[in-house]
Each structure stands twice: as structure tokens, then as C-alpha cells.
Amino acid sequence: MARRAGVSIATVSRVHRNADLVAPATRERVHRAVAALDYRPSRLGRSLARGHHDATGIVFPDLSGPYYSAVILGYEEASAAEGQSVLILATHRRAASAKQVLDLADRVDGIVLFGRTVDDEVVEALVRRRVPVVLVARPIAGNSDSVRTQSRSTAEALTVHLFEHGYERVAYLGDPHASPDAAERWQGFLDAHRAARHRRWRPAIACGFREEDGRAAASVLFADRDRPDAIVCANDEIAMGVLVAARAAGLTVPDDLAVTGWDDIPAARHLAPPLTTVRQPMLDLGRRAAEILRDRITTHRIEPLHELLPTELVVRSSCGCSYHTKEAEE
Amino acid sequence: MARRAGVSIATVSRVHRNADLVAPATRERVHRAVAALDYRPSRLGRSLARGHHDATGIVFPDLSGPYYSAVILGYEEASAAEGQSVLILATHRRAASAKQVLDLADRVDGIVLFGRTVDDEVVEALVRRRVPVVLVARPIAGNSDSVRTQSRSTAEALTVHLFEHGYERVAYLGDPHASPDAAERWQGFLDAHRAARHRRWRPAIACGFREEDGRAAASVLFADRDRPDAIVCANDEIAMGVLVAARAAGLTVPDDLAVTGWDDIPAARHLAPPLTTVRQPMLDLGRRAAEILRDRITTHRIEPLHELLPTELVVRSSCGCSYHTKEAEE
DNA sequence: TTGTAAGCGTTATCAT
DNA sequence: ATGATAACGCTTACAA
Q1: What's the gap in Å between the CA of A70 and the closest CA on chain B?
Q2: Is nucleic acid strand C under 7 Å from A41's C-beta?
Q3: B117-to-B10, B60, B66, B172, B312 alpha-carbon distances in Å
Q4: How many Å is the maximal CA-CA distance in chain A?
């Protein structure tokens, strides 16, 4: 051990966690020894003795697309600022995901669960095990903390906006059962229809979240003679697919068909036509998750905290608004 | 401890790493005790005793954009398949990044360094400390392993393609000093000009990697009376910015100006006009990094391994090729 | 087959 | 101010 090398003993520990309760002389001696032997204290030993990891985990259902990467960015940044390492895991709806999450849980001081990654039972198991948990974009469970974005009311506003443009047969494209957020948006869509009683509405058209899913679903839809004249998509990727399908079907957007997305991914403003969508503060989502988790870990707070982040309607042209591209969006 | 609870002692350890050298009867007894007490072995204890973490780290210079997220995806997937946890870190060019990386290094069994995250000295320090290192999209250092994508020859091919369309004043937009990849692409660009001697070329126009950087640089460029008639951009985001600037300047792409990108981000095919670019196997980049690192860790291989992944020219319309959008790219 | 005990590298509590 | 020493929770000879 470096201890022998220096001269002293476990005093090295003291100097290492920069306790000032060490004589300047000895401290200096230790520092020299450390430098000479290129000694680094072992995290493992330290963690074992102190009882915590200085690390947290974040688990996603998936990792593809610009959506998650922004969340990771915010999460990593906030965590690093607090000196916490971050472990990342994607469950991919694997059968073993519950085990993976449980496993991750005992490498960290706390964990954030994103969307539909694991069942409520797993969340409860985690909580029972005293693992601090923050739920992101997911219904509350096991009285852990949560962070979400406003979905329902903005979805309603978006749908109403379409009504105001005169569209009459508005469809919702996306599977409300696939993700909690998609479900909320669908509810908002329904709210709008309920408020405007004369509107008829059709059931949600279930489809996956990828562009190709949207394209496929839309092209089927367009074959119908009673095709919708506006489509509210569960996310931007689906909307991109719809745009592709519309072009293929000879439909002009937004004249023949309005299309809206959700997320405001970077590509959205570059589409033809620029996509009307909803911006979510994804960076903040990750950042707040990290902060709330940290708080729960350090303060041992018992009351669950629930945070709702605002979203913002981003009106471009695909809903029938201004036709000319806006130059100065920035 | 659960040991007392069951009946036996450190036999629980044996049964836990499913050693079959335990009598079925006792094993059963232990299993029951484990279930009853909801006992989970501590990773810390285990790691400390065995001397490894079953985790690896990956560090990025940044985390924004679709580029990194694909790499993470591949890396996480391959790591999870091998039962390794993954720690993620973004240095953001922070001053403390060397320290952060060194710090990360002793939480893991090996580390992958992406692009311009840390100086060669840090890599060497890591290697000296016997930390297995894989370098991704970065020049070789400290004789660690590396994975890269083919840049130079494809960049040359891309530039030649532009020549064949008849463009004469081709510019390169992107900072060769900012990233190793950008430097390679610039070299390929030069190679093409050297091969076609009659071509005159201009120095690279340094600019950041984001859309706004590209837009700003391009609009300056367009003000020049000797403006280029084709621009090879260091990545797709820059190219998107150029497209925006071109529209603002009243230039038609590809008639007045050809534009090419790099990466083939999801948005590329949806731009107007669809962007000619270069596809990189980013998923594989992450996956191979994980596999090579794992190999180095387990086999203690001493010879460095260097892998070069192929890239592919994706010809769309922004280079002057077919004008109609291809429907069935898939 | 299974128990005993010596590490693994820290921190923390006592003494001194 | 600093040295012993007992945890921390596991693995792994070595005995029994």
C-alpha cells in the first residue's frame, strides 16, 4: 500500500478527503508519496466503507431518435455538476428488463425510470428496497417522485387550432396504449372534440412511433374515400411518415391535408412544409429528473414530488397557417 | 446477514455464483432464505473481492444530435448483451474533463474515448494505469485499440462526384482542426483536387458543427461575388444551415449551388432538396467499440487492434442528381 | 460438501 | 494530530 510508502498509516485517508485536521507537514509528506507512487484511492473500497456509490442510473425503453438524446444530455449535465456518475440502460422491452433494472439498482444510489420501461410491480419492488426512484414521462407508482410534460391541454389546444382552420375530419395517429404520453395526447384530442360537440371523431389509429409506421398507416388511410382532412400525429417521426405518404398519394399539405407532430425535433422546421408541432423541454426533463433524484437521495424526503413541465405549441405551416417559410425563427 | 437467517455461512456465496458444488438440499435451503429475506448480494463487496466492476465507460465530447445517440445505442446494446453496465460521460470541453475521465476510469474495467474528448497525455496516463482503452473516431494514441469510419476516400469520391456534375468552385465548410473526422474529410477533399490538377481550390472555411454555424458561414460566403458553386459540408447539420442560407439568398439548390453533407441523419432525406451525404455505420461504431473493449479486457491482448468501418455515399438531389424525390429509398 | 478465516481498500471510532 | 483496529459485504483458499 501507498501507506507504507509514505510513512504514515490511515492518515492518508484523512488527507485524501481533504480533512484539514492533519498537520501541514504530514499532509505534504503524504502528497509526495501519492505522487511518487501514482496512487489512486479505490472507489470500491471507499464506496463499500461509506455505503454509497456516488452514481445514479437512468433507464430508457429505447435509445433511438433525437428525443432521448436530449434527455440524456440534460441528465448527464446535471449529474456531473453534482459529482455523480451516470449509468445508462435501455430495456428494449426485453423479457429480462425487470432483472436488468433491479440489477442496475444496486450499483447506484438512485434510479430514474423513463416511460414504459418496467411494470408498476418493479417500481414498487424498488421502492420497497429503499431505492430512491424518479419516474419520468410515466404514470405515478409506488409513491416515488415524477417529472412529466404537459400533454393533454396542449394536445387539446392543437386540435382546436386545427378546427379553427376549418378542418373537419381530424384523425389521431398513434397508439394511446403504447406510451403514457401518447395516451395523454389522445385525451387532449378527445377533449377538443367534446368541447366542440358538433365534431365527429374517429377512434385513434394505432401505429408505432417511427416514421415508417406513420407512412404505412397513412397510406392505408388515404386509400379510404372518407379520408381525414387533418391528422394529429403522436410524434414528429410519425408526421414525417405521413408527409411522405401524402406526397406519394398526390395530396398537398396543408391544402388537402393538415399534419401536426409532437416533440419539435430538429428536422421539423426543415420539412416541406415546415411542421406544426409541440415543443417539449426535453433537456429540462432530464435535468430536473437528476435534481429531484439527488434531492431525494440526500434529504431522505418522504413526500413524493411531482413536477409538470410546460410544453409549447409551435405553429408552422403544416397546419394551414402561413405558407411562406419563416426565415428568422431564431 | 442473510447467512445467519438461512442456516449456513459463506456457502451462500457458492450457491450464488451457481456453483454446482453445493448439496442440492443446502442449496434449496439457501434459496428459501434468500427469498424470505429478499436478500441481494452487494455488488460493491463482490467487486472489491473479485477485483473488477463488470462495467465499462464511454465518454463523448458532447451528446447532442442524432449522431451520438446512435453510437450510444449500439454501445449499450452490445454491452448489455455481455452483461456489462455502462457509465456515460460527456466532457463538453470542460476544463475538468481530464480529471473526470481519470475518475471515471476507476469505476470501470475499461473505457472508450470518443473523438476529441481528451488529450493524448490523458490517454497515455490511462494506458499506463493499465486501463483498457478503445479510441473511437480519434487518432491513435498510447497504443490502445481504435475504431474509425472511412472518411478520406469517401470524401474524395464525393468531391469527384461534384466535379462530374460540372461544378467548378467547390468549397469545404467545416473546421479540419475541430475533429479528427473533419480533418480526414478535408484531406479527401484535397485529394480530389490534387487528382484533377486543373481545379483550383480554396482553403477550408472553418465553422462549428451546428446548423446555425453553417447558416452563418454560408451567408457570409454568398455575399462574395466569387461565391462557390458547390459546398462540401463537414456534416449534415452544417449542410442544413447552408440550405437555409441559400434559400434566404435566393439561390436554388442544386442549380445555383450544390450542397453535400455527412452522416446521413434521419432528416437528410426529408430536406428540400433531399441531401446528398455519406452514411456512417454509427450503430456498428458503438457496437464494435464495446466488443473490442470487452475483448481487450478479457483476453489481455497486448497488440492493439485498429478497425476501419466502411462508409457509403448516399446520392440524393442536392448534388445535382435526379430531381424527383425517390419514393422507395428503403 | 461445507465451515473458517484471511483478504480486498477504504472509512470511522477510539485511543493515545 | 495520528496510530490501531473494527467494520463494509463479498470471494476464496484451506481445513475439516
Answers
A1: 6
A2: yes
A3: 44, 6, 18, 24, 26
A4: 88
Cβ neighbours for A207, distance < 8 A, ≥ 6 positions apart: A173, A174, A175, A213, A214, A216, A217, A234, A238
Bases on strand C under 7 Å from any protein CB:
1-13
Contact call for residues B89 and B60 (beta carbons, < 8 A): yes
The amino acid at residue B18 is N
Q: Cell numbers at residue B255, please? A: 442549380
Alpha helices in chain B (DSSP H): 2-5, 11-16, 24-37, 43-50, 66-81, 97-105, 120-128, 152-164, 180-195, 211-223, 236-248, 282-299
Q: Could you tell me how many residues make up chain A?
A: 330
Q: Which nucleotide is nearest to A46 (CA to C1')?
A: C10
d(CA A45, CA A30): 19
pLDDT band at B307 (very low <50, low <70, confident <90, very high): very high
Cβ of B19 less than 7 A from strand C: no
Residue in A282, A289, A240 with CA at minimum distance from that of residue A263: A282
Instruction: Quickly state the pLDDT bin for B2 (edges 50, 70, 90).
Output: low
Residue to mutate among B38, B42, B44, B131, with most A CBs inside 10 A, is B44
Label residue A169 left, alpha or beta by phi (over 0 means left) and psi (-120 to 50 means alpha). beta
In this structure, the strands spanning B277-279 and B312-314 are antiparallel
For A90, nearest residue in chain B (alpha carbons): B76
Is residue B244 within 8 A of residue B231, CB to CB? The reply is: no
Of A21, A8, A5, A275, the C-alpha closest to B271 is A275
Q: How do residues A55-97 score in pLDDT, each as one tens digit?
A: 999 999 988 877 889 999 999 999 999 999 999 999 998 889 9
CA angle B316, B317, B319 (to 5 degrees): 100
Q: Strand order of the sheet with strand B258-260?
A: B170-173, B230-233, B258-260
Position A239 confidence tier, pLDDT thresholds 50, 70, 90? very high
- Average pLDDT score, chain B: 92
Phi, psi of B94 (to 5 degrees): -65, 155
Question: Measured between alpha carbons, how far is B287 from A289 in angstroms, rounded to an integer?
Answer: 28
Q: How many CB atoms are located within 10 Å of the residue B256 CB?
A: 13
Q: Which of B1, B100, B29 is nearest to B59 (CA)?
A: B100
Supply the DSSP string of B214-257, one letter for each residue.
Answer: HHHHHHHHHHSTT--SEEEESSHHHHHHHHHHHHHTTPPTTTT-
C-alpha closest to that of A251 among A224, A229, A234: A229
Instruction: Calculate the CA B321 to chain-centre distance.
Output: 29
Cis omega before residue A266 (within 30°)?
A: no
Nucleotide closest to residue B25 (CA–C1'):
C1
For the stretch A236-249, what's the b/e string if a residue is b when 16 or more beta carbons lie within 10 angstroms of its beta carbon? bbbbbbbbbbbeee
CA–CA separation, A28 vs A149, rounded Å?
52
Nearest 5°: phi and psi at B138?
Answer: -155, 145
Contact B86 A88 (CB under 8 A): yes
Q: How many CB atoms lie within 10 A of CB A181?
A: 24
**pTM of this prediction?**
0.91
Residue with minimal CA–C1' distance to C2 is B11
- CA atom of B8 to C1′ atom of C15, Å: 36
Each residue of B25-70: pLDDT tens digit? 888 888 888 988 888 899 999 999 999 999 999 999 988 877 889 9
| Nearest residue in B to A39, CA atom | B129
CB A156 within 8 A of CB A134: no
Please indicate whether, in this complex, the C-beta atoms of A73 and B90 are within 8 angstroms of each other: yes
